[in-house]
């Protein structure tokens, strides 16, 4: 005789997550509490996008998150969100713009490298260094990341956004929808962005291979 395995039913007291359509309709109607619902729905993607671009959560991280949400609410109020992509995707694009603006400001202040990193990402504990890890190589990798952020901050904004979205796993069609351009235009931005970033990084790579001068004995 076969035994039947009992499967627990979903918790009836736990409401299902609201869809984008439901959230947008509630926003347009001005329903009470919609601001908090939007915040809870989009905070993970906004926070994660800013963290990936900036590399750490510094003292102004909360201000950047707030700035991103102000722009999100503004675009929804002015009905600039066409609904051709998800709300989360739209929020990630806005967070990309906010993050790039912050990088440019820090670059102007010459504090990109000297800033003290904030606490590690709360959703993942830092991995312990692997056995036999090369500290010199790790320091070099960190410098490369900082240089990459500086180069992105100095690049054309549309190309940098396309590169960042691609790095976050969005497909070419999704990048086109998120940025409001054709697939061909998105492909062009991505290709030109790669070439521009490569050209900016080449002097750094060449400098690493220049042998240090030996001091001549006096």
CATH architecture of the largest domain: Orthogonal Bundle
What would CATH call the class of the largest domain?
A: Mainly Alpha
Count of helix runs = 8
How many strands? 0
The class by helix and strand makeup works out as mainly alpha
- Largest beta-sheet details: none
The run of helices and strands is HHHHHHHH
Identify low-pLDDT runs.
1-10, 118-129
Beta fraction:
under 5%
- CATH 4th-level superfamily of the largest domain: RNA polymerase sigma factor, region 2, helix turn helix motif
Indicate the CATH topology of the largest domain. Rna Polymerase Sigma Factor, Chain: A
What is the subunit organization of this protein? single chain
Distance between the termini: 95 Å
The overall pLDDT, averaged over residues, is: 76
Q: Give the C-alpha Rg.
A: 22 Å
Helix fraction by DSSP (H/I, runs of at least 4)? 55-70%
The number of domains? 2
Descriptive report:
The chain is an all-alpha fold and 218 residues long. It is 62% helix and 0% strand. Belongs to the sigma-70 factor family. ECF subfamily. One of its GO terms (molecular function) is DNA binding. Keywords: DNA-binding, Sigma factor, Transcription, Transcription regulation. Pfam families: Sigma70_r2 (PF04542), Sigma70_r4_2 (PF08281).
Quick structural summary:
The protein has eight helices and no strands. With 218 residues, it is mainly α. Residues 146-197 form the RNA polymerase sigma factor 70 region 4 type domain.
């Amino acid at each position: 005789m076969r035994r039947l395995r009992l499967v627990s039913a979903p918790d009836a007291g736990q409401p299902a997550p609201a869809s984008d359509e439901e959230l947008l309709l509630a926003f347009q109607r001005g329903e009470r509490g919609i601001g908090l619902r939007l915040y809870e729905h989009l905070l993970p993607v906004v926070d994660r996008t800013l963290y990936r671009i900036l590399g750490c959560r510094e003292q102004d991280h909360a201000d950047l998150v707030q700035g991103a949400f102000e722009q999100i609410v503004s675009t929804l109020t002015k009905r600039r969100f066409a609904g051709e992509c998800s709300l989360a995707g739209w929020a990630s694009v806005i967070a990309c713009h906010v993050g790039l603006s912050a990088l440019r400001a820090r670059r102007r202040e010459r504090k990109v490298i000297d800033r003290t990193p904030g606490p590690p990402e709360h959703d993942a504990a830092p991995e312990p260094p692997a056995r036999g890890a090369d500290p010199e190589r790790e320091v070099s990798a960190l410098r490369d990341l900082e240089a990459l952020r500086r180069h992105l901050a100095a690049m054309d904004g549309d190309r940098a956004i396309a590169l960042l979205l691609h790095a976050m796993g969005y497909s070419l069609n999704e990048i086109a929808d998120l940025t409001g351009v054709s697939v061909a235009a998105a492909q062009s931005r991505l290709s030109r962005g790669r070439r521009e970033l490569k050209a900016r990084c080449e002097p750094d790579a060449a400098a690493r291979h220049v042998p240090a001068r030996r001091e001549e004995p006096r």
